[in-house]
Amino acid sequence: MKIAIDIRSAAGEKAGKGWFTFNIVRNLLKIDRKNEYILYCSDFVAGFEEFKNAKQKRISGSGIFWHIKTAIEIYKEKINIFFAPTSFIIPILLPKSVRSIVVVHDLVAFLFPKTHNKKAVFIEKLLLKTALKKAYKVVTVSKNTKKDIIEKFAVDEQKIEVIPCAAAEGYGKVNEDILKEFKEKTNLPDKFFLAVGTIEPRKNYVNLIKAFALIKDRFPEYYLIIVGKNGWDYEPVYEEIRKNYLQKYVHILGYLSEKSLVNLYNLAECLVFPSFYEGFGIPPLEAMKSQCPVISSFTSSLPEVVGDSALLIDPESPSQLAEAMVKVLMDEGLRNTLKEKGLAQCEKFSWAISAGSLHEVIHKMPKK
Prior knowledge:
The structure is a single chain. Helix content is 44%, strand content 16%. It is α/β, with parallel strands linked by helices. It folds into two domains: 180 residues, 3-Layer(aba) Sandwich (Rossmann fold), CATH 3.40.50.2000; 171 residues, Glycogen Phosphorylase B (Rossmann fold). Helix 8 crosses helix 13. It is globular.
């Protein structure tokens, strides 16, 4: 079969959807050496060169014009299956002769629209229902998102396949000498909480900073480090830092490489992940694999991701979050338990297993 994939999100500085695309496609290509893959992009994406049965095809342009041109190319290439890991536009444009697998990461545009980019909310509300109807198969990254889709759009449960995310292979325990050298080079504080994710309302950093302000006087030697690039409506986060006079104690580092992030997980007191809503939530697994304790929201998909391996909190409550942060600092036994359970929990998720599930979906699809 000829299979086409939109890999644009795997380019450059990747967030959750980009890492899903990168890792699921790489691992799928490791499994499937028989089918022919055409990887559509707007710029070359590093990481797929080793696979002889896959070629990248660069389509110029942006926005709707890129999607139209790519849909035409897919039709000309006589593609059998189109895999859409992040966008719903091309599956809607394609004829029925091309069977589409559409990935729905979350329904934040429908359930929490005020925390999401307005343009993205408009596009998803306009297109998702049609894309779900036209898709031959729908993939979600969590049982929670599957449940949301069934409730919101009455999609047949048999049409939806849950294929979860995972932490990449590079995460894990790091040698003490490497950590010491990293600290010296980066001038990091000795003691800090870590938060990872794009700076946008859904990630709930305003309440995280309020929680940190509640414990700062009691633990003056601790800092808060946030790793993530500025996203939609990021300004209130910086305003909250100023309002609480925490400019010296809250460090926003922007986007970091996987190598730097692994070191931070190893050095942090714990990962704090107070998100209002997640389709999956990869950072808690990255932290657990690196033996970093996790505090997480009890909302959306996060309980199925972290299991009983994290302290679960109400994201609406800064005081509850502050209390959990103090618990982690004061209770060494709790920290060790969270580390031990976290290692076992993250082993339940694997990009190789997820890619195997996707390969099975592809294998079962009609060839014509």
